[in-house]
Structures
1.
Amino acid sequence: MIVTLTLNPSLDRTIDVDRLVQGTMTRARSARIDPGGKGVNVSRALLANRAPTVAVVTSGGADGEQLVRLLEGDGIAVHAVPVAGRTRSNVTIVEPDGVVTKVNEPGEPLSRKELDAVADAVLAEAEGASWVVACGSLPPGVPFDIYARLCEFFASAGVRVAVDASGPALPAAVGAGPHLVKPNRDELAEAVGRPVASVGDAVEAARELRERGAGTVLASLGADGAVLLDEDGVTVGTAPVAEPRSTVGAGDALLAGFLAAGARGAPALAEGLAWGAAAVRLPASRMPRPDDIRRDIVRIDTRPDLGRSLIA
Ligand SMILES: Nc1ncnc2c1ncn2[C@@H]1O[C@H](COP(=O)(O)OP(=O)(O)OP(=O)(O)O)[C@@H](O)[C@H]1O
Ligand SMILES: O=P(O)(O)OC[C@@]1(O)O[C@H](CO)[C@@H](O)[C@@H]1O
């Protein structure tokens, strides 16, 4: 069982337009709503591939109720913690040439009591779980070390913790010794305070995060694939997609595939890359099902070309 935690979930509204012109009124061609937030997507991808999961989310107002209804409608086990603030809506605008504009709301603050209720929910669900996966931005005012505290708590309880965080929450979590972190290229660069322009830069940055406390670093590099650094060493992989439709949630699909495959070495990286590429071929934040996943396109390299520049 994999427990995901999304403190700042969302209703993801995806709007298709012919052309987006800033400062004008644009009529949409179509619109859809998906349950959103990084941990939520990890659970969606796991369930779509029959891996047992439960999603712990905060839920506020009518939008929070809709989020829970959508998740339950998909058959996902949800542990919703009621909160006073409204669940946010994040908007993705898609143009026919694939250009994507995304606007994420900050979310609403959580009270001390609400945070305690979230902690109780994660604790209850983590009983017997293989992983607790804490993902996504923190609502305003939530302490940046909350994921770090989660790592410290579960280290003594013997449950592995994976963290997908940005900003100061990532280095804080790394220092608390998580089993796994999944930064993207920007998050990796911010965490080490230098640019990540090549595969070698990504490997060096991942090495630094391991030295600071992370057990495994799974760094996602968009179209350049991913770098895995764990106790077995460095593995780099790619899974090219000729015509990407939407990269929203691709990192979550990568992480879900990696965990579902056992989170160790090249086979898990290959599975994650296959799920990530499948997500990119699907519209909006649709998570891949078994039929969408092609493992034959994955290329794994245990002796990567460290000098290879990443796509700008
Ligand atoms: N253009 C692309 N072509 C092929 N694969 C891609 C592309 N973009 C993303 N991917 C796949 O998806 C994975 C995650 O992408 P990325 O590094 O953009 O994650 P992310 O920023 O965490 O995404 P999100 O936050 O939307 O989930 C990559 O490691 C890769 O496997
Ligand atoms: O604002 P955050 O928490 O960083 O990211 C939230 C989000 O962009 O991440 C998911 C894709 O990974 C979307 O479902 C959601 O809208």
2.
Amino acid sequence: MLNNLLFITIRWLDIVDILLVSIIMYQLYKLVKGTVAIKIFLGILAIYLFWKIAAALKMELLSEILGQFIGVGVIALIVVFQQEIRRFLLLIGNNRIFSSKNGKLFKLLQVNKDEKPKLNTTQLINASRNLARSKTGALIILDLHSELKLYTVSGEKINAKISSSLLENIFFKNSPLHDGGVIIQNNEIKAARCILPVSENQSFPNHFGLRHRSAAGITEVSQAIAIIISEETGKISFSKQGEIKHNISIDDLEKNILAEL
Ligand SMILES: Nc1ncnc2c1ncn2[C@@H]1O[C@H](COP(=O)(O)OP(=O)(O)OP(=O)(O)O)[C@@H](O)[C@H]1O
């Protein structure tokens, strides 16, 4: 056995292999960090490493049993990590060369991108300022990559140009549309009262309720960004990639939004 270990030759491709696996593992870890999935992830990782060690040491029976377990485990893995796999694939698809913001690939392939109407940030910022001042709870999702159709249909179709007064009206406490989130796409309020996925991130402070958690939930599973106005405190928060910047100024909100456009 010792002989076997001594005669292992390492090619430069092996080093690239190890490096790539480390990068993928780190990205996966970043995705599941702070969620319940991290415990399952570490458990599976431990079993996998144990299996590989058993196989390298030629412990036939143990590596056979663990191998069977890992084989079935792949299906269980896809089910358990459905959301994380989605986010991981989005992360890859969001690579600079593919991103429509950068547009290199589109130029290379001579694909004509449709000109989308520019987001009217002035109306959006005015609405956020007024909603915060009047402590009107609000959840606004900016679907910058047109990927939230599934969630848009869960609400009431609006299809109207963005305007500060319309947004304020929607979130007005007695309005029948004030519950849930508003989804904005291509400078249009697509729908209101949308039901969004709730984040399971356990690292959020306890005072974050469902409004904040569903903002984080939708930005976890998509490239959308979200604005949250707290009904309780009037504080403004911004969410991107499942993270929440809490209690930011209106100027910071504007900067954060502009950075995404
Ligand atoms: N799954 C969901 N998708 C979209 N909106 C939701 C969802 N669940 C709850 N909400 C919205 O969140 C509101 C409840 O907010 P809650 O008080 O629990 O959150 P919060 O984060 O503490 O916000 P606030 O500071 O405004 O109280 C509901 O009235 C509804 O409008």
